[in-house]
Amino acid sequence: MFPGGGQPDMQALLQQAQQMQQQLAQAQAELAAAVVDGSAGGGLVKATVSGAGELKALVIDPKAVDPEDTETLADLVLAAVRDATLAAQRMAAERLGPLAQGLGGGGGIPGLPF
Q1: CB–CB of 46/37 below 8 Å?
Q2: CB atoms near residue 99 (< 10 Å)
Q3: Contacts with 34 (C-beta within 8 Å, 6 or more apart), sequence order
Q4: How far apart are CA 110 and CA 114, in angstroms?
Q5: Which residues lie below 8 Å from residue 82, measured CB to CB, with a gap of 6+?
Q6: What values do phi and psi take at 82, rounded to 5?
Q7: What mean pLDDT value characterizes the chain?
Q8: What is the torsional sign of CA 21, 27, 51, 42?
Q9: How far apart are CA 67 and CA 73, in angstroms?
Q10: Is-contact 38 86, C-beta < 8 A?
Q11: Residue 9: band (very low, low, confident or very high) from pLDDT cuts 50, 70, 90
């Protein structure tokens, strides 16, 4: 039901939908440009990920490199990338959450990897 029992103002609804679409596109562009960092091993491995979840940089401290133990280094790399990716997901949820709710969605945002 609509307030007052009348018909919806289609022009107003269309304008509102277009405005929300523009806000969503702007927020997605801002996320793609933003970067977040993650680390593991007390900072021995650092990963930088875009707000859209793309790995941008990986820095490995030479102290983390042991030719006899490459498994630990691999684990540290995975942990740093996961840490940065989770930070990107949190940032996306904070920025896009209110917009997604306004669109009636409860799931993921189309075009984002999470």
Answers
A1: yes
A2: 18
A3: 50, 51, 91
A4: 9
A5: 38
A6: -60, -40
A7: 82
A8: negative
A9: 9
A10: yes
A11: confident
Q: Closest Cα to residue 109, out of 38, 53, 34?
A: 53
Calpha distance 40→44 (Å, rounded): 6
Other CB atoms within 10 A of residue 105 CB: 13
The single-letter code of the amino acid at 45 is: V
Q: What does the longest C-alpha to C-alpha distance in the chain come to?
A: 75
Task: Give the number of other CB atoms < 10 A from CB of residue 45.
Answer: 24
Q: Which of 41, 36, 75, 73 is nearest to 57 (CA)?
A: 36
Q: Mind listing the pLDDT tens digit for each residue in 75-87?
A: 999 999 999 999 9
Under a CB-based contact definition with an 8 Å cutoff, are residues 47 and 88 in contact?
no
pTM for this entry: 0.65
Amino acid at 47: A
